[in-house]
Design brief:
Shape of chain B: globular
Helix content of chain B: 25-40%
Distance between the termini of chain B: 16 Å
Structural class of chain C: alpha/beta
Number of domains of chain B: 1
CATH superfamily of chain C: Thiamin diphosphate (ThDP)-binding fold, Pyr/PP domains
Number of strands of chain C: 10
Chains: A alpha/beta (359), B alpha/beta (193), C alpha/beta (262), D mainly beta (82)
Oligomer: heterooctamer
Largest sheet of chain B: 6 strands, mixed
Bound molecules: thiamine diphosphate, iron/sulfur cluster, magnesium ion
CATH class of chain C: Alpha Beta
Number of domains of chain C: 1
Order of helices and strands of chain B: EHEEEHEEHHHH
Radius of gyration of chain B: 15 Å
Radius of gyration of chain C: 19 Å
Number of helices of chain B: 6
CATH topology of chain B: Pyruvate-ferredoxin Oxidoreductase, domain 3
């Protein structure tokens, strides 16, 4: 298969279909709409189903129902639409259903939402934040694998630029290790046998009146700890001898990486590290990297959210400075001055000079 | 090598189609390509730009560029924003039929192509952007004419197939408008398709 | 021929030759035990539903999507595959399930609080879409589970926790007649309302449930059964008066009948 | 003394009974009545008098699955005081 | 006015009415239902309006509409119901409306939701976590004041025990400094004058087509930074000479405080510090306290959420240990073994012995 | 008496004595400029709405609660007090506003995507409650703002972005006729549907809006006006064909008329 | 040459016109037609021919608030070629 | 001083009402009071407890107590859970009519009151909890009889006012059932009301 030029939205949807996604439901909202459109156009070709749900609540409900049958299913929106889905996201996590969902965000202000969730109770979703369309294609396929492996929702955190940039990509089904059979999935077949299934967010099975919620919470917690151990992913460059380390994620990191390469080529001692998974956050990698640098800078397109995690990683072993910052357009789609290498360079230079950049 | 090409113009001049065809043609030839269109306003007549990055290996450049290796300008409106980003030695191809400003950048190579005039002569003023991209292709060698023609044909939606012939003529004419290889952009090493 | 005390022995099957007409519990129930209140109508309705599924020979293809209300406690003993949905969301969940299991018999079980309050939009949209599922409403006109407050289905005059002297139209508006509303949509193929306030209506309820399921099996589109059920606890009426209260107070507004049969 | 015919009978799981009395009025021959004793749950429960027809109405109305209904192959006759 | 014995739910609702709350809307959910009931019974007495909304989404919408008129208005639910309100909470914060809302939570698993929010974009809500009914009565009144002062939503984070415990309380209207007039509130009166109002979550005013979203975000951010400076509240006991500091909040802190007092009376060198505001978190107080202790323990009824903030406060200056933990009942209302002084003492002793307690 | 070229000068008020019948914009609009598409029906409907408010002398007591759709762009120029609601939520917001401002004229302005999709439940519950507000629906059968996808109001056969050859009932179900649905509820006092596809219907639209507002002013309960509006962009039809397409395609299903007037 | 009476007239803000043509068919006397020239937005706009009645239909249908409508105190007569 | 009092029994024995009356009476007398009722099961017949803390200044004790200064037991069922929490010197008042277990705690003072018998004699077996709380009030001096009567009257909903007289008699009888001040709980310092 050769590389083709595709828009991010479409490439991700296509990758999802290549990964076996057979159900999609969503409600239009910029810049998520094109993803929805691609599924609508192409899922039927492979015998899948795509529904333009009547609202975000209905979209995630439908995905939930499809997941329960063992199908690979996905939904998505922008962070705003996902805000409406928080009750479901939290409970789907407890029902241990392998949902994949897209946040085609308007900027990076949804970091807290993505990593800490706005649902109730303790739960965590894996969050993959691709830097470009090529990585998005890979991470989308990985998302379905991880979701099934851990029986846990996985979010793909993109944005307007990821959704709308066209890149040459190759989309073919990726290989992953084998997964256990989905013997928990409902298909009706066990009705009347005394062993019928019950897909339930409070871990309840049939005839089990005495739920043990504490044991259930603990089991989930242990699983989440295991995910933290196993799945943290990151990319790093020029850590060696870096006077300052810049931490960034997603599209913004693409600008940062470019500038850091440029500065390094000019002999400026700056390094770069990028969480690919926002949860689990690569605490260890950043903690280690922070041992060998004078300061750690965080460059995120929001008022300062990931900086919490960076501080938690660095834990005082080096100063952590914020390089900003808000960056918006009139339409509210989250495109702004931060999406320019000049602007980024300026921020990094401030950081090197020991100055914070106000968000 | 990563080359940033920016197409600029006003709504209705075919800037987005031109960018798409150029980008697709490069992809067809096995290049790594990235492109992103932006629309300034909601109404016709707003500015419209498109950024293309073409490279022979994985692209490092982010989708919104601060520096440009080549600019193809269909109109002078909004040109100001672009001028400042030109790299030294950048190629600037102007649609001289309508471009009415001084180019205020040093160390760049300016090529005048009466794209709208050529296209109008061919009976299709809306094909001016095809003239311009083909002219650039010929001077830079960034893509072959055949690739442009092929991708132009594929890019048009089915209900626009009547435009294929006119556009093909515009591409061919544009390709002849300047001397070939005035500013070759690829090193001698060919990229495997 | 027996004699002696008037009260007969009923703590075991009869010793005389006899045919068992009906077992304690339907086959698709795992146990008779549950924590619902004395006189609750919901287990009665659920019995009819499970018998209907069994009679249609759909035990091995039925998937229930359950809302949140008192009936949720029965998910531990209903022996069909189940998906527990959030409060209000069952019809959308059932939509996803049915689309992926076109040969399944997919039903929802919801209360009026779940369906007519929190999830009104979901059931209407699913119906309008003509989704080929069966939605079953247990309508008692109250949020039983959370203590008996008024729902959007409570009829004027009905006692609830926050309308202890009866719902007042001026203050609280009028109830939504959900069956009438759904019957009006062209996406619905079968809509009927019944109630479990006496034995013959209970049997009739099963008949209606069978028709609704059959509608789905025939691929005709959205089918809907509204079952009026007693909630003496939520209504603050003496338990034995539940059936009468249901028939006369709720039943006089939510009128029984087949509203649509295509 | 008179004779009453039972065409059917019921097996009542009285320990499960929550005393709701829903079974009482639906029994057409009026052969169910509530006990004076209480079960472990503290509830009164139905008792069967002669004359059951095996109509299953009680079973249909019982929310707690307390009834099993039988039809005798041969009706049973009871002698009762009126 | 004398002290009366009242259930927490009712005392808070009564305090809200005393503070001038004149609108309430909510949807039943344990253990929030009694709060809703009290408003329903008593708001009409003072000419207020209480609506049993048909869902949580409708409840918060109604409160929004009432707030827009300048009325003091509130809503609430448990964390689960609040999950459904996240889009609204996030946008109400941007519309700068002074919402007060109750989270009668099922345990402490909603800490992330409360402090980081599950809405989209950057926003923060003030979170007050009373330790008992008496404090709840005060904090409820404070909540309305702070909401108006900052034009920012304020959450009151309670739980089942707070809602259902009866305590002697005195509820009379508290005095607060004067507030600016609500000249932004709609009443229709400026229609046709060219100065009509527009209460808008994106900071848009009439005829202002060119929204400046960045300036808007920044202004909000600065406000939130000011709140962080001004409003952090906490309680501390026995910091002096404490070998270990236990951090806890809400009802759980009530058990912790009791046990710490008991242990101190036995001469065991343990101290106690309690964030009263979960946001803004009392970083400085905890950071200072951590300077003079050997370790900091966090005791929260969840899988470990506030511990992030404690770590961010302590920043490595002392080890931070988790003392657990999940604690649930069958009904899922969040009552469990942690609500026992024996259990708490046991956990603290583990901490003193240098052992973490798994959640 | 003038003569010369056929084309008259129209770039200024006439020089001959003349009475101004109608100004460019209604008094309650702050400016004529907006970014909506050529041929959009929404500004026409909004003009009628603002004129109706003015004529009823309610300028100083009207509060609008605005949904999210293309019409939202007009909030910058509508000169009544406004509250911007989230997508779908306007009727609930208006409920809170009206309860606190009983003498206000509280109206919502929503699109079909906003009201019949995302916020279907809110408008129905508000109507059932008999909330004394006026909800105004601009129904163009598409999500105009997000690029013209099908809504729950799109009629069978209508072109939209994802039904470019016309909505297909089999695949997408049937539209919800929201006015009919609301008229059925006893909480509604006034329900009418009109359209702005020609001048007389536009004038009629204002008459209907006045009646709806008057219903609220008289304290009679929920009033509802559905206005069919052109969206040539979303329908993928040539701009000048908008009015005809509206009248014949949407109007033949969403039938004009007063459905309820109490 | 013939005479046409204008009982009214319109003031057209052509620079704001988006060329939708909605005003054209609603003008009963058919005195509006689209220009051949284009405005700054690149759009054609309506032009008025003699015979306006001041009926306000154009104004009612214009989404862009391009019309002001006047009624002459005395009708105006135009001489036109037919 | 903070005194934790636990009432225990099975559903239907009036435990919650008893607790409420006792708690309210203490509040009436100006004490700081906290109380919390818990219900074991959903059905009648489950266990039902209530914890009351009465103090002369701000209460430190959390609502679910691990140690109890006084226990009033209407029934032996579920008594096990309580026994282990008794403080040394705690007062235990048993409804001796139905309480059928050994009390297995050391250093506590046990008082037997045939509460159900007394109440039944007065014609109101459901008033047994009133007998018990009044007996405890008299032996401990925790609240005055008048306070109990007043709060009992206020605690009953309007449709239960017919029970007021019976309950009052039960309170008076209970107050006489044991010698007064057997185990005084307050120091001499009176708390201001
Ligand atoms: C989102 C959400 N809100 C509120 C609740 C609380 N809740 C649980 S059951 C219930 C009422 C159920 O009423 P209904 O569906 O009529 O069932 P019933 O109890 O009457 O059988 C409510 C409000 C919830 N679980 N989820
Ligand atoms: C919760 C939410 N979901 C999705 C959107 C995206 N959105 C904005 S406007 C719109 C469609 C509006 O359609 P309609 O109300 O019919 O108005 P129109 O644009 O057609 O005038 C959508 C889906 C949103 N703003 N909020
Ligand atoms: S509250 Fe009502 S619906 Fe719930 S179990 Fe009791 S009787 Fe049934
Ligand atoms: S089976 Fe019929 S006759 Fe027999 S006890 Fe039951 S209801 Fe009565
Ligand atoms: S209906 Fe069932 S539970 Fe009710 S009294 Fe009769 S046997 Fe008992
Ligand atoms: S998309 Fe449709 S509704 Fe929106 S402005 Fe354009 S024509 Fe109007
Ligand atoms: S006012 Fe009437 S007659 Fe005059 S131009 Fe307008 S539509 Fe035509
Ligand atoms: S209706 Fe208005 S915008 Fe449309 S063509 Fe006529 S004048 Fe121009
Ligand atoms: Mg109900
Ligand atoms: Mg629309």
């Amino acid at each position: 298969m050769t590389r083709v030029l595709m828009e991010g939205s479409e490439a991700m949807a296509k990758a999802a279909i290549a990964a076996g996604c057979r159900f999609f439901s969503g409600y239009p909202m910029t810049p998520f709409t094109e993803t929805l459109e691609y599924f609508g156009k192409h899922l039927p070709d492979v015998g899948g189903v795509s529904i333009n749900a009547e609202s975000e609540l209905e979209a995630i409900g439908m995905a939930w129902g499809a997941l329960a049958t063992g199908a690979r299913a996905a939904t998505g929106s922008t962070g705003q639409g996902l805000a409406l889905m928080q009750e479901s996201l939290s409970e789907i996590t407890r029902a241990e259903l392998p949902l994949v969902y897209f946040n085609m965000a308007r900027g990076q202000g949804d970091y807290y939402q993505a990593t800490r969730g706005g649902g109730h109770g303790d739960y965590r979703n894996i969050v993959l934040a691709p830097i470009d369309v090529n990585e998005a294609v890979e991470l989308t396929q990985l998302a379905f694998y991880l979701a099934d492996l851990w029986r846990n929702p996985v979010q793909i955190y993109g944005d307007y630029l990821l959704a709308h940039t066209n890149e040459t990509v190759e989309i073919s089904t990726m290989e992953f290790p084998p997964l256990p059979p989905k013997d928990w999935a409902v298909d009706g077949s066990l009705g009347g046998t005394g062993k019928s299934r019950n897909i339930n967010p409070i871990g309840m099975s049939k005839l089990k009146h005495e739920i043990e919620p504490e044991a259930f919470w603990r089991r989930l917690h242990v699983k989440h700890k295991e995910i933290e151990q196993a799945e943290a992913r990151y990319e790093e460059e020029f850590l060696e001898g870096a006077e300052m380390l810049v931490v960034a994620f997603g599209t913004v990191a693409r600008f940062v990486r470019y500038v850091v390469r440029e500065m390094r080529s000019e002999g400026i001692a700056v390094g770069y590290i990028r969480p690919i998974t926002l949860w689990p956050f690569p605490y260890e990698a950043i903690s280690n990297a922070a041992q060998n640098t004078q300061k750690v800078a965080v460059l995120e397109q929001n008022g300062g959210q990931m900086i919490d995690d960076v501080r938690l990683a660095v834990l005082g072993s080096a100063p952590v400075v914020a390089l900003g910052g808000f960056s918006s357009d009139e339409a509210g789609f989250g495109i702004g001055p931060i999406h320019g290498t000049d602007n980024i360079r300026d921020r990094i230079e401030h950081g090197l000079a020991g100055q914070e950049v106000m968000p | 090598m990563e080359l940033e090409i920016m197409l600029t113009g006003i709504g209705g001049q075919g800037v987005q189609l031109g960018a798409q065809v150029l980008a697709q043609a490069a992809a067809l030839e096995g290049r790594e390509v990235m492109y992103l269109g932006t629309y300034g306003g909601t109404m016709r007549g707003g500015n419209t730009d498109s950024t293309i990055v073409i490279a022979d290996s994985a692209i490092s450049t982010p989708p919104m560029v601060s520096k440009i290796g080549a600019a193809l300008a269909m109109h002078h409106e909004f040109w100001r924003d672009i001028e400042g980003k030109l790299r030294p030695g950048a190629s600037v191809v102007l649609n001289s039929t309508v471009f009415e400003r001084e180019v205020d950048a040093e160390g760049v190579n300016i090529y005048q192509v009466p794209a709208t005039e050529i296209a109008t002569e061919l009976g299709s003023p809306v094909s001016a952007s095809m003239v311009l991209i083909a002219a650039y292709a010929s001077l830079s060698g960034i893509v072959k004419l055949e690739s442009l023609i092929q991708e132009m044909t594929q890019s048009l939606p089915s209900y626009r197939q009547q435009h294929v012939q006119l556009n093909e003529r515009a591409l061919r004419a544009g390709y002849q408008a300047l001397d070939a290889n005035l500013a070759p952009c690829w090193s001698q090493t060919e990229v495997a398709p | 021929m027996s004699s002696g005390s008037d009260i007969l022995q009923t703590d075991a099957p009869p010793s005389q030759p006899a045919e068992k007409l009906c077992a304690f519990k339907p086959d698709l129930l795992l146990s008779e035990d549950h924590h619902l209140c004395p006189g609750c109508g919901e287990p009665i309705a659920v019995r009819m539903m499970l018998e209907a599924i069994k009679e249609l020979e759909c035990s091995r293809r039925a998937v229930g999507v359950i809302g949140i209300g008192c009936y949720t406690a029965l998910t531990g003993i209903i022996d069909t595959d189940l998906v527990q949905a959030l409060h209000g969301r069952a019809p959308s969940v059932a939509t996803g399930t049915k689309r992926m299991l076109p040969n399944g018999l997919v039903y929802t079980l919801q209360g009026d609080g779940d369906m007519v309050n929190e999830g009104l939009q979901e059931v209407i949209h699913s119906a309008a879409r003509g989704e080929n599922i069966t939605c079953i409403l247990l309508n008692n006109g109250v949020f039983g589970e959370t203590g008996g407050h008024m729902t959007a289905s409570t009829v004027v005059g009905q006692r609830t926790k926050n309308t202890i002297d009866g719902r007042d139209a001026k203050e609280h508006g009028q109830p939504i007649l959900i069956s009438e509303m759904l019957a009006q949509l062209s996406g619905t193929a079968y809509v009927a309302r019944c109630g479990v306030f006496n034995a013959s209506q209970t049997v009739h309820t099963k008949r209606i449930l069978r028709k609704a399921f059959q509608t789905q099996l025939d691929g005709k589109g959205f089918s809907f059964v509204e079952i009026l059920t007693m909630c003496p606890t939520g209504w603050f009426v003496p338990v034995p008066e539940g059936p009468d209260y249901l028939e006369n107070v709720l039943g006089s507004v939510h009128k029984l009948g087949e509203l649509k049969c295509e | 003394m008179t004779q009453i015919k039972s065409r059917g009978t019921v097996n009542i799981a009285t320990e499960r009974c929550k005393g709701c009395e829903l079974c009482i009025p639906v029994c057409k021959p009026e052969v169910l009545r509530m006990s004076t004793n209480r079960n472990k749950l503290g509830m009164r429960y139905p008792e069967l008098l002669p004359g059951c027809t095996g109509c299953t109405a009680c079973l249909l109305m019982c929310p707690d699955f307390c009834f099993e209904v039988y039809r005798y192959q041969e009706p049973i006759l009871h002698e009762v005081d009126v």
